[in-house]
Amino acid sequence: MELGLLYSGGKDSTLAALLLDEFYEVTLVTGHFGVTDDWKHAEDSAETIGFDFERLPLDPDVAREAVDRIRENGFPRNGIQLVHQHALEELAAQEFDAIADGTRRDDRVPTVSRAQAQSLEDRHGVDYVAPLTGFGRGAVDRLVDTTLDVTVGPSEELDRADYEAELRALIADEDGPETVADCFPAHEQTVVRDVR
């Protein structure tokens, strides 16, 4: 069975790919709005760890709506949630038997409720698989420490292919780079460099 996994090049989506590889033909898929070429970083990570890679064009209007929500709230949660739901919808419409992401049990955003997962499955005739929903951050970190070579750093400094990078770029272009820090709290991200 063929599975498309939403992929950022970070530790969570990479660990999800490794777990699912036992049961599916996994293709790593990075959704992008065409704002930046940051998707290339995910492609590099996918090649390094030995998975097929595809880009998934997303609707730029959704990025604009996400940016509006971020500005309105002064926080990225609702904007990133909107983008993740859109990316899952677009992925489910592709030619995969199953779709997946790297969401964990304790993620604040993005999340996928049981009702949302069932709706995706029913409307698109795919299985939605979330292999890390039984794992908390501590368990994921321990698995990653023994399995992956990662770089950790502030999200604004890492070369990553996630929704946040393009949303940050849109806000910087429209409101100035100093505004980005007002909307996105400082936090660390990861980039996978290799499998151990």
User: Counting H and I runs of at least 4 residues, what is the number of helices?
Assistant: 8
Beta fraction: 15-25%
Q: Terminal Cα separation, in Å? A: 26 Å
- Structural class determined from secondary elements: alpha/beta
Poorly predicted segments? none
The CATH class label is Alpha Beta
Average of the residue pLDDT scores: 93
CATH architecture: 3-Layer(aba) Sandwich
Oligomer: single chain
CATH homologous superfamily heading: HUPs
Radius of gyration: 16 Å
User: What shape does the CA trace take?
Assistant: globular
Count of discrete structural domains? 1
Helix content: 40-55%
CATH topology: Rossmann fold
Read across the widest sheet, the strand sequence of neighbours is: 3-2-1-4-5
Instruction: Count all strands and give the number.
Output: 7
Quick one: biggest sheet? 5 strands, parallel
Instruction: Give me the strand/helix succession.
Output: EHEHEHHEHEHEHHE
Structure overview:
The protein is α/β, with parallel strands linked by helices. It has a single domain (2-195), classed as Rossmann fold (3-Layer(aba) Sandwich). It contains eight helices and seven strands. The chain has a five-stranded parallel β-sheet with strand order 3-2-1-4-5, sandwiched between helices. Strands 6-7 form a two-stranded antiparallel sheet. The radius of gyration is 16 Å and the shape is globular.
